[in-house]
Amino acid sequence: MKQPWKTALTFVIIGTTLLPANLPALAADTTQATVASPSNFGLTDSIRAAVKSLAVETTAGGTRIGASVRLYNGGTQKTRIPDHQLHVRTTGGVQYTLKASAANKTALEPGEIGELVYMTVIEGTPAIKLSELSFVNVDEYVYPKKETNLLTIPLGAGQVWYASAAGADKAAEPKGWGEAFAIPGLNSSLRYTPAAIKVQYATGGASTGATAGGTSGGASAPEAGGAAAAPDGATAASGAANGAPAAIPNAAGAGTGPVALVTLLVENPGVGRETVPEFRIDGQSDHKTYTGNRTEQGAVTVEAGEKKYIHFAVPVENNVTLTSLFVTTTETFVSGGGQSAPTTATGFDVGRVQIAVPGGAQTDTAPAISYRIGSPIVFDPLNKMIDANTEVTLMEMHLHESDNGFHSVVAKFRITNKSDKPVPVPAFQTEIVGSDGAAYAGARQSGVTAALNPNMSYIVNYSFNVPKTESGKQLTIKLLDTQSAAPYTSTIASLQTAASSEAAGDTFAMYPFDLKIVDWTLSATTPGSMGGLIYSYKISFTLDVKQTDNVVVDQNFSRLYMELVDSQGRMLGTAEGPFTGPNKLATGKQILTFTAKTEQLENPFTIRVYEAFDTPSGLAKRYITTLKQ
Question: What is the pTM of this model?
Answer without folding.
Answer: 0.81
